[in-house]
Design a protein that fits this description.
- This protein is an alpha/beta fold and about 450 residues long.
- The mean pLDDT is about 95.
- It binds zinc ion.
């Protein structure tokens, strides 16, 4: 039996704090930027001119954030060393006209977001969080809120009314069976808007629109008899956001004393991965390419300098990986077992559902060795479909070498996922080693 080290548990407890602070992509960005501010990073406005001197910077666009460190002389010219991850998780989004109800219950209309394990959302105590856009004299403003009270629930049908459920499996109609209840009484047209008004201290008629989602109010926890597990919502993919953030801050803090990395370290946290990444803030959009080009141009580089920098760049796309499930080992490739707490996983797929290729895999494995971190390799069972990540999109859009890696977990896309408590710290150390080597 191997037990998580004290360092790993300190890191895992900080991960719990990060998970708790971030029920929505906007909260992820807000928590991340707060930590960057504390580490000496400054926000930049994408519509303003950027400083020609180097420094620690970040930009925010909706639920996406990109942060980087340039040396004092400006962009390094050797290219970018990018860590990518995503801020969104599968679940639900509250509809624009959500007030509904039936049989004496008030309910909210909710649209499925991405590919959640729908069954895992049943009979959980759910809160609400998100962003509210409101009218003000000079235009519009937005406010985030979170309500940690257990105010919503998607009740499962009793077994007496669904006798086959355990033998034939649960059948859920996405339109009819997933409307959360949030009170008793008649349908209250405008009730949700009034609720939002109370949450952000505005009058309901000022509220124009919202991005609001339900979340599990049970906080993430270290679990298992020896705290060998992290159990919680949104491990996919906040474990990677947290690890990438920790790595960037560690590298930026060590830069003045030692030799700065030759590459410009970049952290890119995208929204909308769970719905295909094609959006203004997704990995299949223009955001990262635009920011990278401006890093070069604002330091006095030319377009030619930038294209040469891109040609010398590389990306690690960090997203969660499937551990071999003890109850379903036949779903996995028998020669590529992936252990929980067995170290970061290099994800390989011949159909390029993952972007990994041999050179990137070799250099990541070498970085893991320098960081004294074990490394694992995942390939799908040939009879199973394979998920995908932001990796192939980043590789294709920017034309740069990309490697898909991640922490092993069980229950991917469940409302309560499970990973090892030592692996998050190991991923961070491996990412630090990767950035330092560049
Ligand atoms: Zn993911």
């Amino acid at each position: 039996m191997t037990l998580p080290t004290d360092d790993a548990l300190v890191h895992a407890r900080d991960l719990l704090t990060y998970l708790h602070a971030a029920p929505t992509p906007h909260h992820v960005v807000s928590e991340t930027s707060g930590r960057l501010d504390a580490a000496g990073f400054s926000p930049l406005d994408q519509t303003a001119e950027w400083p020609a001197t180097g420094g620690r910077f970040y930009v925010i666009e909706g639920g996406a954030l990109i942060a980087w460190v340039t040396p004092d002389a400006g962009a390094s010219g050797h290219g970018f060393s990018i860590i990518g991850a995503h801020t969104d998780s599968p679940g639900f989004r509250i509809k624009p006209r959500p007030d509904t109800g039936r049989a004496g219950f008030r309910q909210l209309g909710a649209e499925v977001y991405g590919g959640p394990l729908l069954n895992s959302w049943l009979d959980r105590d759910l809160g609400l969080a998100g962003r509210v856009v409101f009218r003000r004299p000079d235009g519009f403003g937005s406010l985030t809120f979170r309500d940690d009270r257990p105010i919503l629930r998607i009740p499962q049908l009793a077994i007496h009314l669904d006798r086959d459920v355990n033998d034939k499996g649960l059948q859920l109609d996405r339109q009819r069976h997933l409307q959360p209840v949030w009170g008793l009484g008649d349908v209250d047209e405008g009730g949700f808007r009034s609720y939002l008004g109370e949450q952000v201290h505005l009058s309901p008629d000022q509220i124009e629109s919202w991005d609001v989602l339900p979340f599990d109010v049970q906080p993430a926890a270290l679990s298992g008899p020896n705290e060998e597990f992290v159990s919680g919502a949104r491990l996919d993919n906040l474990v990677s956001c947290h690890a990438g953030l920790g790595a960037l801050i560690a590298v930026s803090a060590s830069a003045p004393a030692g030799a700065p990395p030759r590459h410009t370290p970049v952290l890119a946290l995208f929204d909308h991965e769970e719905v295909g990444s094609t959006s203004a803030t997704g990995a299949n959009g223009a955001l990262l390419g635009r920011v990278l080009e401006r890093i070069t141009l604002s330091a006095g580089g030319t377009r030619d300098d930038h294209l040469r920098a891109l040609a010398g760049s590389h990306c690690i796309s960090a997203d969660m990986a499937h551990a071999t499930h003890p109850n379903y080992p036949e779903r996995h490739d028998p020669d590529h077992p992936v252990r929980l707490d067995g170290g970061p996983v290099i994800k390989i797929n011949a159909q390029q559902r993952y972007a990994s290729e041999a050179v990137g895999a070799a250099s990541f494995a070498a970085a893991c060795e320098r960081a004294d971190v074990p490394v694992q390799r995942f390939v799908s069972n040939n009879t199973m479909p394979c998920g995908s990540t932001i990796g192939p999109l980043t590789a294709a859009n920017l034309g740069i070498r990309t490697l898909d890696v991640g922490v092993a977990q069980l229950g991917m896309h469940s409302i309560r996922e499970l990973c090892g408590s030592a692996d998050p710290h190991r991923l961070t150390r491996a990412l630090v080693a990767t950035l330092h080597a560049s």
